[in-house]
Each structure stands twice: as C-alpha cells, then as structure tokens.
Specification:
Elements lengths: L2 H13 L3 H10 L7 E2 L2 E2 L4 H7 L3 E12 L2 H4 L1 H7 L6 E15 L4 E4 L1 H4 L2 E7 L5 E10 L4 E5 L21 E6 L7 E12 L10 E4 L11 E3 L5 E8 L10 E5 H14 L5 E2 L2 E5 L2 H7 L5 E6 L4 H4 L7 E5 L2 E2 L3 H9 L6 E8 L2 E8 L1 E2 L2 E4 L11 E7 L4 E8 L4 H4 L7 E5 L2 E2 L3 H7 L7 E7 L2 E7 L1
Antiparallel strand pairs: 1-2, 3-4, 3-6, 4-5, 5-8, 6-7, 7-8, 9-10, 9-12, 10-11, 11-14, 12-13, 13-14, 15-22, 16-17, 17-18, 18-19, 18-20, 20-21, 23-24, 24-25, 25-26, 26-27, 26-28, 28-29
Length: 455
C-alpha cells in the first residue's frame, strides 16, 4: 500500500505526469491476474510442478575433515625438518539437493561435492520426512553420487533424452538454494556441450539461464513435461551467486553413471592409449588440417595401437563427436565404458581415414590393506604417459588413510621404490616388499624431488 506512492514520486521527478501512464495498469491488476481470459485458462507451470517437486529433496550432511598447517602436510617438509605431523579434526556441514529417480529402490541422484567427506547424509522430503541415507557410490570426475533411502510413498521422476535438447528449449530448475527450502526457477537452454571450464574432470554441460544458486547442486533441471533433462551442478558468477549462467549434467550421462554406480559401486573409465596436443595454427599448416587434435604418442599394445593409430595422426571425430580440443577428446572417452566399440576418424598425410577400436581399461591399481603392503594403504596409482616417458602417478589418496597421513597428494610421481627405478605400476608392485615393513619412495612433486620413508 505504501509502495505505489513512492514509485509515483520517483517517476514524477524524472518524467513529469507521464508516470500516470504506468500507474494505471499497475492499479488495474493490483488484485492479481485472472485465472481465465476469454474462456481460456492462462498458461502455468503449476500443474507440472505439483507432480514434479515431491521428487526433489533437500540433502544435508555432516562430516569430519583433517586440517593442519599446509607445511606439516608436505612429506618433504616434515622429512627435511624431522617434524611430526600435526593435525586436528574439524566438523563440516553442507546443504544441497537431490532427485529421486527410483521410488522402489529409494535411489537419489545428487552431486559428489554435496556428499563429499560426509559421515552422515540426511534427506528431507517435501512432506517433511527426514531420512538417513546410505551412500551407494560416487564419481568425483563427473560430480555424480547416488544415495539410497528407505521409505514408502516416494515419488520419482522420469529421465528425459538429453540428446534431444535444443538451444531455446524451456527448462525449470528445482532445488534448495541457500538453504531457503525448495525453490523453482525457469529459463531456457542457453547452450549445449559446454566443456573446458575447469569445473570437473569430465565436462559436457547443459548451460541454462534458469537461476541456479549455491544449494541447487544436485537438484533437477526438468523440461515442461516434468522429466529430468539434467542434474544442476555448477554456476559461474563473480560473487558466487546467479548471473544467468548455470550448468547441469545431461540426463543421459547422469543416468549412465548412476547405472554403473548401482551395478558396480563405481565408474570404470577407459582409455585409448594416446597422448594428445592441440592443433595450433602452425601445426595446421604442417598437417594440412584446420580442425582436430594431434596424436603426439601412442602407447604400445594399447587400443589405439592395435587399431593402427600413429603419432602424427590428427583426430577429427571420436564416437560420432567432432573434436577440436584435447578436452573434447578427453570428455568423449571419459563418457565411454570399458570394452565399448567406437569409431575414430582421423587425417593422415592429408587423407581422411577411419578405424574402429575397443575402449581399453585404464591402468589403475588401488593399494589397499594387504594387497601390497600396509604402509602404502589408501593410494591409487596410475600409469601416466607424458610426451617423453611413462611414469607412476598417484591419482588419488583416500582421506584418513596411511598415505594421506604421510601427506601424499594426487599428482605426486613415484620415481623409485627401495632404490629400484619404476616406470609402471607393474614395476612398482614388483619392487614393494610382500610383507609389511619399511618402504623408501623417491617422489617428485612439481620440480622438487625427495626420498620419503614410509613405515
């Protein structure tokens, strides 16, 4: 009641009595829009949302993380100064969203970063029920996780075919922004296939201008039929808020990852066995190709090697996807399952070729318990091929494990084990003692290297 006079005064000062032209419609509709005009109901999203919103849940977590001075976490610093590790536990909390996609099994899809480091996961339904959830599995690279709840009368959403999306399609984002409670925003599909953003390891995002804010993560992006076309996951904004640029994981990718997690407990990604580099303007002239990615190396006996790919080939298409950046190739392969047959198109000597190959298994070995030696428990090692050599890289360290307590990090390179130089995971396994004891690791981090005793 007090707002309109204020607006009238402001407009009068700027535009004279022209303000009356704007005030008349405002006053005419101050009672709200009619539900029916000329015998026809006004368009509304309400009927669709009444069927959809009960399947979108709020997720809250509590967890514990270890914190310490970064210097004390570095094994090289501790070794050099002969200092013990000093750390403490800190409780964490997070809020996010999730989507019920299977009512019978109580399966809820959300983002990995929503439940990361969680000791307890609590799901709140729109009817007020609070349920403890069990983690089924997660995929940090694509930021997908699956949890399960036990309850009756659950409502689940159907998956849509995200490959059928077009730029300009209307979409609705449902989630729990800023912990306010369930909120609905609408917009359109702004772009498809967004990658190279550095948000996740595997990126193939739907971009939308439907408002997505912190807390929307893991919520549903639905079409006007109320089907899930994406899982909201990230925003781009200078202050962490919505500026009309939000990203969602396509439903086809999210559904495939969910199925792998439910059946296997994890996502097993494959590899081609090639090293790649960008096709720069200089290389375009050398290879006579304007678009593609250059093969700079081929791993012996890999899928690419067996299919006949060679150093100097220029990849132009992978599994039906045109590629012109290393990230696009990485994403295309990262979305495939081990053993899947794909077609690769490439240019060699100015001539186009194509070949079929099977996606090979990535060379990953998880060091757990007595598998090798207790002192290496918790690390994940990978054969990593650079442009010049193959090395053993630590691609993951489980929080709270022995290797984590020693301060090892993802990206560390193992040069030698007990004075034996190693270049592959297999060579490292041979060099590690079968029985628990002392293991000396020569490790490189960045440009620095150091010998670390693990016992």
């Amino acid at each position: 009641m007090h707002l309109l006079p204020h607006i009238s005064s402001v407009l009068r000062n700027k535009s004279g009595w022209l303000c009356l032209i704007f005030l008349v419609p405002a006053l005419a509709f101050s009672g709200g829009l009619p539900a029916i005009v000329d015998g026809e109901p006004l368009p509304s999203l309400a009927p669709m949302l009444e069927q959809t919103t009960p399947a979108v849940v709020n997720i809250s977590t509590t967890g514990t993380v270890r914190t310490s001075n970064p210097l004390f976490e570095d094994p090289f610093f501790r070794h050099f100064f002969d200092m013990p590790q000093r750390s403490r536990q800190r409780r964490t909390q997070s809020l996010g969203s999730g989507v019920i996609v299977d009512a019978a099994q109580g399966l809820v899809v959300t983002n990995h970063h929503v439940i990361e480091d969680a000791d307890e996961i609590l799901v709140t339904l729109t009817d007020g029920r609070e349920l403890k959830a069990t983690l089924i599995g997660k995929d940090p690279e694509a930021d997908i996780a699956v949890v399960s709840i036990e309850a009756n009368n659950l409502h689940a959403l159907r998956w849509a075919d995200s490959d059928q999306l077009r730029v300009g399609d209307f979409v609705v984002a449902i989630g729990n922004p800023f912990g306010l409670g369930q909120t609905v925003t609408s917009g359109i599909v702004s772009a498809l296939g967004r990658s190279g953003l550095g948000i996740e390891e595997i990126e193939d995002f739907i971009q939308t201008d439907a408002s997505i804010n912190p807390g929307n993560s893991g919520g549903a992006l639905v079409n006007l039929r109320g089907e899930v076309v994406g899982i909201n996951t990230a925003i781009v904004g200078p202050s962490g808020g919505n500026v009309g640029i939000g990203f969602a994981i396509p439903s086809n990718l999210a559904q495939d990852l969910m199925q792998q997690i439910v059946s296997d407990g994890e996502v097993r990604r494959g590899k081609l066995g090639v090293s790649l580099q960008q096709l720069t303007e200089e290389l375009q002239d050398v290879f006579g190709v304007k678009r593609g990615v250059v093969v700079s190396g081929v791993e012996s006996n890999s899928s690419a090697d067996l299919a006949g790919l060679q150093r100097g080939d220029v990849l132009t298409e992978v599994d039906g996807r045109k590629v012109q950046s290393v990230n696009q190739v990485k994403n295309a392969i990262g979305l495939l399952r081990v053993g899947e047959e794909i077609e690769v198109k490439f240019v060699r000597g100015g001539q186009p070729f194509s070949t079929s190959l099977y996606v090979g298994a990535a060379a990953l070995t998880v060091i757990e318990g007595e598998e090798l030696a207790n002192q290496l428990e918790g690390a994940v090692f990978e054969n990593y091929t650079t442009q010049n050599r193959t090395v053993v890289a630590i691609s993951g360290v489980r929080s709270g494990s022995r290797m984590d307590r020693y301060g090892f990090r993802r990206g560390d390179i193992v040069l030698a084990v007990n004075s034996v130089r190693v270049a592959t995971v297999e060579e490292m396994i041979d060099a590690v003692p079968l029985q628990s004891g002392k293991t000396v690791l020569d490790v490189q981090r960045g440009s620095a290297s150091q010998t670390v005793l693990v016992q």
